[in-house]
Every structure is written in C-alpha cells, then in structure tokens.
Amino acid sequence: MVSCALVGGGWSRTGESVAALAHIVGAREGEDIGASALNADEYALFAQVGRACRVEAGQRLFQRGDSGTAMYVVANGAIDLDFGDDLVGKRLGSRAFFGELGLLIGDHARSADATVAEDAELLELGRDEFEALAQRDPHLLAQFLRRAIMRVVMNEQALIGRLRRRNQQLQEALDNLRSTTHQLDRTEALTRTDELTGLTNRRGFVLELEQRQREGRLTGHVLVLVDCDRFKSINDTHGHLTGDRVLQSVANLLRAVAGADDIACRLGGDEFCLLLRGHDREAAARITGYIADSARMLERMHNWPPQMTSLSIGACMIGDEGNQWEYWYAQADDALYRAKRQGGDCVEWQV
Ligand SMILES: Nc1nc2c(ncn2[C@@H]2O[C@H](COP(=O)(O)OP(=O)(O)OP(=O)(O)O)[C@@H](O)[C@H]2O)c(=O)[nH]1
C-alpha cells in the first residue's frame, strides 16, 4: 500500500463524527448524485485539506481485500481500478474519487485493486482530514456524501442486475443442456429400438451382449433364436400390413415372457431372439416350449387373416468356456437350423 507524503494541510479534529454526516438530507434538484468525480467547488474544498502525493505509473495503491481507512481524489494522471473477474474495470482521471468506503465505513476491505495507470498526483484524505472538511463547509460535504452513498447504492444495484442476468443465462444454459441430454438419450434409445415392434434391435442386442460379456455376466444366460415359419406366404397372401401385425404379435409374445433382466429383440425381418437370465436348462425349456405352444394356438385361433404364425426356435445355454458371444450365437443358430429342417413349429436345443 502507498503512503502519501504530506504536502499541504491545516486541519483540526472536531467532535463531529463522519458517521453523523451520513444521514444528512436527500439529494437536491439538478444534483448529479451518481457522478464519480468531484465538482469544481468540492475539489477546491478537498484540495485545502487533502494530503497531496505523487505516484508513478505501475505503482499499486492498494489491492482487493486490503483494509483501508483513506480515500483518494485524482488531481491529475490516471488510476485503474480492477474489481476482479466479474466486473468491468474503471480508469479514473482528474477529480475522480475512489476508496471512499474505507473512509466512511472505517477498516473496510477494499473491493478493487487500485494501480497507477499514468504518473499522477493524488489527494489522500483520512478521518482527520474529513472532519476538517466538515468544519470548513458542512453543506458541500453533505452534498458529496449523498453522492458517495448513491454511488455505492447504484453500484450495488448494477451488480445485482448483472448477477441476476448471469444467473438467468446460467439457468438457460442449464435448461438447454438438460434438453440436449434428454434428446441425446432419446436418440440413443431410438438407435437401439426396432421401429415396428418396439423391441431392442440387433444393434442394441449386440451392444448388450458385449457389455454383459465385458462384465463377465454372460455365463448362465440362455440364448434363444426365434424364426417365423413360412412368413413370406403371409405377406404374399394377405399383404405386408397383415405381415407387420403378425410380427408385432410375435414381439408381444416374447415381451410377455421376458423378465426385467431379459432382453427380447427383433434381429430383423422375421427373426427374433431372447436372452434369458437366471434359468436352468429345464426352466428355460419350459419357457421356449410355452412360446412355441402359444404361437401355434394363436395361429389356429385366428387364421383369416392370420394374427400369428408358428415359430421355429433354437436355443443354447451360455457356458463358462470363455468363448465370445458370437460362438454361442452360432450354437443357437445351429439348433434353429435343425428346427427349420424338421419343418418348423418346434424347439431344438444345442447340447
Ligand atoms: N410385413 C413385413 N415383412 C417383412 C419385414 N421384414 C422382412 N419381411 C419379409 O419377411 C419375409 C421372410 O421370408 P423368408 O426369409 O423366406 O422366411 P419364411 O418365409 O418365414 O421362410 P422359412 O423361414 O423357411 O419358413 C420376406 O419376404 C421379407 O420381405 C417387415 O418388416 N414387414
């Protein structure tokens, strides 16, 4: 912190306190209460009592957080005030005053760094000088005080306004981020979903298989491949819309048997699959048998137009031999091939 050399002076302590001056009446008409520079009369008064000092460019007068009890008036030269990241800095020239809160409040923590931008002459006023001002011209000092207080109030209001705007911008940015994340999640979910049936699609299924394999959770699952029998003839005889409805019925059947941790998937065309968890071979055989039986019964129940078709099913238990999921997929596919070779409408297991 700079200490000014005393050049002029002549002041005396009075019993009147600085604080007592702060409640003096409101602003008068035409008075520029927010101005940051003294008018000519005020400056002349301050110059009578202020301690004059010279400071050089680059010199630091005080920094943020310093406790200060003096205010300054720029006689000539320039001072920069830096309020930190959130506020715009200020360059002060002739007759501008700063640091007044240090004087008015006493032991106030400075809210800015004050640096000499160009060689300058300053007037420094401490408590004694200020009381001398009060003695010499209380009316002019009251006018100055009103302005100083209004400046603080206006700065506070501007700060609150800026913070409010900043808060609003942050809120908007957060809302945008939330909605973008939500859209990305939705898009990601859509890329894993089959449009016609709402089941997981092949991509989603493979990603899930890979993840369970990476986490060592695949062993013990049952992999079930399902293929519609003579589906092409449904399309040919009744049209694609009927074919679509049959595919949706197959999807509903698989969805109905899938538990929370199982995956029902449409691989594409009339091929589906199920990944079941937590069943031994016997329990899994009951599930695959139930699927085949249900499809057969539904096919017989509604055959014109058809709402279901019989199914060929190939299944295997995923073992712990350390094979990749593609190996088990090929095993289930072999079983499915055998089911097809037998004319469909049956379940084959790969041993
Ligand atoms: N309606 C409809 N048909 C589809 C869709 N995707 C594929 N298909 C048709 O499904 C038919 C599948 O025929 P194939 O692979 O010969 O199977 P299939 O007729 O069931 O013969 P098998 O499996 O030997 O019993 C093809 O005619 C495809 O055009 C779809 O989304 N909707």
Automatic annotation (TrEMBL):
Mind telling me which GO cellular component terms the entry cites?
Answer: cytoplasm; plasma membrane
- Which Enzyme Commission number(s) are on file for it? 2.7.7.65
Q: Using the UniProt record, name the top-level EC class of this enzyme in a single word.
A: transferase
Compartments, as annotated in UniProt: Cytoplasm
Q: InterPro entries from the entry?
A: cNMP-bd_CS (IPR018488), cNMP-bd_dom (IPR000595), cNMP-bd_dom_sf (IPR018490), Diguanylate_Cyclase (IPR050469), GGDEF_dom (IPR000160), Nucleotide_cyclase (IPR029787), Rev_trsase/Diguanyl_cyclase (IPR043128), RmlC-like_jellyroll (IPR014710)
List residues of the Cyclic nucleotide-binding domain. 35-133
Query: What GO biological process terms does the UniProt entry carry, in alphabetical order?
Result: cell adhesion involved in single-species biofilm formation; negative regulation of bacterial-type flagellum-dependent cell motility
Coiled-coil annotated spans: 153-190
What molecular functions are annotated in GO for this chain?
diguanylate cyclase activity
Question: Could you tell me which SMART domains the record lists for this protein?
Answer: cNMP, GGDEF
Write down the chemical reaction(s) this protein catalyses.
2 GTP = 3',3'-c-di-GMP + 2 diphosphate
Q: Which UniProt keywords apply?
A: Coiled coil
Keyword Coiled coil listed: yes
**One Pfam match:** cNMP_binding
Q: Which domain of life is it from?
A: Bacteria
Tell me what this protein is called: diguanylate cyclase
